[in-house]
Amino acid sequence: MPAVPREADILAALDTVMDPELHRSLVAAGMIKDLAIAEGAVRFTLELTSPACPLRESLRAAAEEAVRAVPGVSDVAVTVTARVPNSQESDLLPGVRNIIAVASGKGGVGKSTVAANLAVALARSGSAVGLLDLDIYGPSVPLLFGVDEQPEMDPERQKIFPIEREGVALMSLGFLMDPEQAVIWRGPMVAGAVQQLLRDVEWGDLDYLVVDLPPGTGDTQLSLAQLVPLTGVVIVTTAQDAALTIATKALQMFRAMKVPVLGIVENMSTFVCPGCGTETPIFGHEGAGETAASRLRVPFLGRIPLTAEIVVDGDLGLPTVAAHPDTPQGDAFTALAGKVAGVVSASAVMQGACRR
Known about the structure:
356 residues; GMP Synthetase, Chain A, domain 3; 34% helix
């Protein structure tokens, strides 16, 4: 008599398939849904923790292979979906599941470019994403996305609606002020602006809100960390000694405020020659970002090359991951988004913070 697969047999097989980012099996992580067995045909849903998961196909294939090995299984159909874990709850941002700050110790390391492309890469994966520009004195988001208009407002509810570009909901103080007007504010006014941009914007339901912070360790960083529970912070640096030293200070500041550090990304890691494609380390410290991440015991999220297209795309108001997705720089930003989403998911699952 032919073997008849049971639900327990299928789950036992799937329990051997590990998610290398979560360090848990698919069953233990609660990723197997809607399991059905009919005359040897097995169907189930594999629910990933982010649409940006870079392991999507490998996990699906491993799950299918494990089930096919169960005696009596004649067919396997796997549907892959994603549901982003919720790592924060706040009255200011009730519909936002994760808040990811992007910070740097010093200016000039391309932090805003990384934040913009990270947000677009996450959105291109299928996630609902917002980008909040909190660089009060030097907002870059209007330029990076080519926005020269003011957002719409609801006067009755006193709410501002984000401007959408490349599938990302955008908000910046730069949308509300003359682009040539300097912001001359003391600390309390900056703190008030941070609160307003969180409270008065109709963000809606988002999987990720990426927050572009100003460089350094000042009032904006302190205000944000005090107002909302941050999922974590991404530290952007270059391979310069000065940048790495000051990035370390920024990282230690967030640790002191009990904000998880999601990892370090090394921007402008190499210069890619537009003529021959040769990569040259600009700052002469190849691998310095990864070494720093190891020393500080945080994940290394990857290297972003410097190319002429990144600069030109930024000037044209189109993030390079949208303008040139199938290029080394586009691939690097897409990989960064996958790494960040993976670290966020792992942190949420390990802390039991996945609120369905």
